[in-house]
Amino acid sequence: MKEFTYLFLALAVIAEVIATSSLKATEEFTKIVPTIVMIVAYLVSFYFMTLVLKFIPLGITYAIWSGVGIVLVTIVGAWKYKEIPDLPSILGMGLIISGVVVIHVFSKNINH
User: Fold this and answer.
1) What is the Cα Rg of the chain in Å?
2) What is the per-residue pLDDT across 41-60, written as a single tens digit (0 to 9) for each?
């Protein structure tokens, strides 16, 4: 199971991006299909995160999950909703990505 940890983390991130990207389409939970997609995708995301937590500590798992998710949701928002980030937003996301890389490369809490 350990060999699938990063696959599970990627699936958790993808499901979270689908869920979060669906939030706007729910129109305050008045649209049933996007609402169901959002609920199922969050459940899938959290399920895969529980599998990851067997091998990577909670804080590091969450940092990677949320950091990568922020960047991907921003890309989806720009593409689907035409919400183009400005320069400070892009720089901030660059810092988030840098943080995820530092955690992954240098943390002794991740079993490479």
Assistant:
1) 15
2) 999 999 999 999 999 999 88
Cβ-based burial of 84 (10 A; exposed 0-12, middle 13-18, buried ≥19): exposed
- Within a 10 A sphere around the Cβ of 56, how many other Cβ atoms? 24
Dist CA 66 CA 51 (whole Å): 16
Q: What does the pLDDT look like over 85-111, one tens digit per residue?
A: 999 999 999 999 998 888 878 888 766
In this prediction the pTM is 0.87
Q: What is the distance between the alpha carbons of residues 70 and 63, in angstroms, rounded to a whole number?
A: 10
CA–CA separation, 38 and 53 (whole Å): 22
Sign of the alpha-carbon torsion through 26, 77, 13, 71: negative
* Distance, CA of 79 to CA of 54 (rounded, Å): 35
Sequence-separated (6 or more) residues with CB below 8 Å from residue 45 = 11, 12, 13, 15, 16, 19, 65
Residues 6+ apart with CB under 8 A from 84: 78
